[in-house]
Amino acid sequence: MGELIANIRAALQEKIKTNTWMDEATRKEALAKLASFDPRTGHPAKYIDYSMLEVKRGDLLGNTLRSDEFEWNLLLDRMKRPVDKSLWSMLPQTNNAYYDPSTNQITFPAAILQPPYFDPSADPAANYGSIGATIGHEIGHGFDDQGRLYDASGKLRDWWTPKSAAAYGKQTAELVKQYDAYEPIPGTRIKGQLTLGENIGDLAGLEVAYDAYRRYVAAHGEPAVIGGLTGDQRFFIAYGYSWESKFREGATRAQLLSDPHSPSKFRVNGVVRNMDAWYKAFNVQPGDKLYLAPNQRVRIW
What we know:
The protein is globular. It has helices at 2-18, 24-35, 60-79, 124-140, 162-180, 196-220, 231-242, 249-258, 264-272, 276-282; strands at 38-42, 98-100, 105-109. It is built from 10 helices and 3 strands; from the N terminus they run ααβαββααααααα. It has one domain (2-38, 113-296): 3-Layer(aba) Sandwich (Collagenase (Catalytic Domain)), CATH 3.40.390.10. Helix 1 packs across helix 4. By secondary structure, the protein is mainly alpha-helical.
């Protein structure tokens, strides 16, 4: 995980240094923010003491009320003290990850550091395509339409020059248009503006993860073909597997109305069709279902 995170940070650093739409003043601030990222994996430095929480078998309502009261008292107690940046907003057994713009921290609980997302003994291409894309996604939140409004110290401050902000907005507007066109349920489309932050995170995450994977390959050598699949193909397939899920129509409809996350299918298909490396890996040609002409592909990083 340490090597993987280091490669992802290095890949994003290179993208910030070489992108053509960001001016030097904004670039300097972006690199400072990336350098100050605090990645946390596995478990917090110190655990919450739950010994005062009473849990009774067969008392679901009581357990819920007592848990809420425990959490409330915990928050009140913390208000008396200085901010503790070692605290986590998730438990180690939570299968998720998050970025906190006010502390510039990315957190990956132990539960997500297991198959299908991560396996230290597995094919590196699969690891970079799954947990690598997740790490890239969370780091990408630091530079999405909302996270970019916080600086390296977590302060709400607009550090973008008008020129760079306008160029960035031009790219993200194209991504909004793409997702506005997706119709998961007949008559109900994705809201491109509502889901923009997560869509930026997905696209940036996979772009950075792919570049990080190529850095790994440069250091360790080109991987063997496995089951007829190249390393690049396995990278993208692993990304697809990481989003396997099932939703009832009602749940999907509710998600489309109010959730800032696009449905899982479009977190995969909506992203890969913007990446040149995906076209090359699978020889995707004009006329294929997901094909986008090069001038229509969104390239934020």
